[in-house]
Write a structure and sequence with these properties.
eight-stranded antiparallel beta sheet, binds D-MYO-inositol-1,4,5-triphosphate, globular, 125 residues, alpha+beta
Length: 125
């Protein structure tokens, strides 16, 4: 369900609630604090919102709480960095590390695959 909405970033995956924890910022370790975030994948960014967004307002800068650039990033499943299940880590090209998690394996793997493809295509571009 890839669609473009007039000049706004191409949205690859519409919003869904995922648990998010930033564990490192610019190479510096952070205290883990899981937060349920409304997550939107665009053609080159992952956007996290504290509150669920309407589809019409899914664009960067519109109350986006965290913008995670995916170009040059790395994504990998991890079983060591959390006691939770279905956890994967995204490392940005600036050395920030985020854990993403949801109890549904199918949801987690859907996001993992879409983010991996986005990292690949935005890194080549
Ligand atoms: C952390 C909290 C996290 C847990 C983390 C704890 O404690 O319980 O949920 O991560 O484990 O340190 P606090 O709230 O006191 O900071 P998981 O849920 O991912 O296991 P960790 O230290 O092993 O990362």
């Amino acid at each position: 369900n890839v669609f473009s909405t007039g000049g706004e970033p191409l949205v690859q995956l519409k919003g869904e609630h995922l648990n998010v924890a930033k564990i490192s910022e610019g190479g510096k370790k952070q205290r883990k604090n899981w937060t349920l975030m409304w997550t939107v994948l665009t053609s080159d960014q992952l956007l996290f919102y504290k509150e669920r967004q309407q589809e019409t307002s899914q664009k960067p800068g519109n109350k986006t709480d965290v913008v995670l650039p995916l170009c040059g990033g790395v994504i990998e499943w991890t079983t060591e960095k959390s006691s939770r299940k279905n956890v994967f880590q995204i490392t940005t090209n600036t050395g920030s590390e985020y854990l993403l998690q949801t109890d549904s394996y199918s949801t987690a793997s859907k996001w993992f695959d879409a983010i991996r493809k986005t990292i690949d295509s935005s890194t080549k571009a």
